[in-house]
Amino acid sequence: MVRNLLESLDGQLRFVFRHFPVSIRHDHAQKAAEASEAAAEQGKFWEMHDILFRNQDNLDRESLVGYARELNLDLDRFTYEVDEGIHAERVFRDIASGEASGVSWTPTFFLNEVRHGVARDLDGLVRSVVDQVRQRAGSR
Fold first, then answer.
1. What 3-state class would DSSP assign to 105?
2. Distance between CA 78 and CA 120 in Å, rounded?
3. Where are the domains of the chain?
4. What letter would DSSP give residue 107?
5. What gap in Å lies between CA 131 and CA 86, rounded to an integer?
6. Torsion angle, CA of 120/126/128/132, rounded to 10 degrees?
7. Which among 29, 98, 132, 134 has the fewest CB atoms less than 10 Å away?
8. 107 closest CA partner among 88, 124, 93
9. Distance CA 30, CA 24 (A)
């Protein structure tokens, strides 16, 4: 959905990703977020992100290492960073930032600094934006 939105707006939209692992839904969500940061250190954030998204039910350590292997990452470096929690603070900062902004679930989108409810598809997100624009225009 995000890729489609970015492509349709052809450079007119800035996309910023923040971690907000929902551990009540995925037991290993925190470590998976850290694994994506460990992959980022080797230039493979989005590749790892996509694998993790496709495999949300398989985020245990063994699976994470398998995904790193699939991406041809330096496994010693990757496992050290994940096992030692090297990127935990980065993920915690994103969580705190999200909570301060009113995020409670994922995905949550902000457009022009306005939070939009959880949208599961592009049409739903666009409807949410249009509804908020209409509400703002009506309150003026």
1. coil
2. 31
3. 23-100, 102-140
4. S
5. 41
6. 160
7. 134
8. 124
9. 11
Q: What is the dihedral of CA 120, 114, 106, 2, to 10 degrees?
A: 50
- B/e letters for 67-94, b = 16+ CB within 10 Å, e = fewer, are bbeeeebeeeebbebbeeeebbeebbeb
Beta bridge partners of 114: 111
Q: Distance between CA atoms of 140 and 103, rounded to whole angstroms?
A: 27
pLDDT at 55 over 80: yes
Contacts of 4 (CB under 8 A, 6+ apart): 122
What is the separation, in whole angstroms, between the first and last Cα of the chain?
Answer: 32
pLDDT at 132: 66
Whether 63 has a pLDDT exceeding 80, the answer reads yes
Q: How many CB atoms lie within 10 A of CB 108?
A: 17
pTM over 0.90: no
Q: Which residue has the tokens 């993790």?
A: 52
